[in-house]
């Protein structure tokens, strides 16, 4: 039982930390972040709006009763990020070695696992 609790904590903490650490770059208009959102045609409002949404998602993921909701929204956000990398940005963005793509992929996978493991809390699925 203890192992399950540790795994559950890791599944929640990893995507939350990834989402939270990117906020600094979004909210301070770091050149890398501005570049990405300009290339997507979403600068500045997309950068700021997604930053706010990612903050909300990270908090929801960390709260056990709302983990499923944060993870569900996280799947959508990270799905969009992965799609953007594959269609517009490329895997490697400004010589990052693919780090941003990898972090989006990890967050996406962890969110999928969180939705699956918390599916019993999703009322509209349990009717």
From TrEMBL:
UniProt membrane topology term: Multi-pass membrane protein
Q: Please give the start and end residues of each transmembrane region.
A: 7-25, 45-63, 70-93, 99-117
Statement: the UniProt record of this protein carries the keyword Coiled coil: no
Keywords annotated in UniProt = Membrane, Transmembrane, Transmembrane helix
Q: Where in the cell is it found?
A: Membrane
Q: What's the main place this protein lives?
A: membrane
Q: What is this protein called?
A: DoxX family protein
| Gene source species | [Muricauda] lutisoli
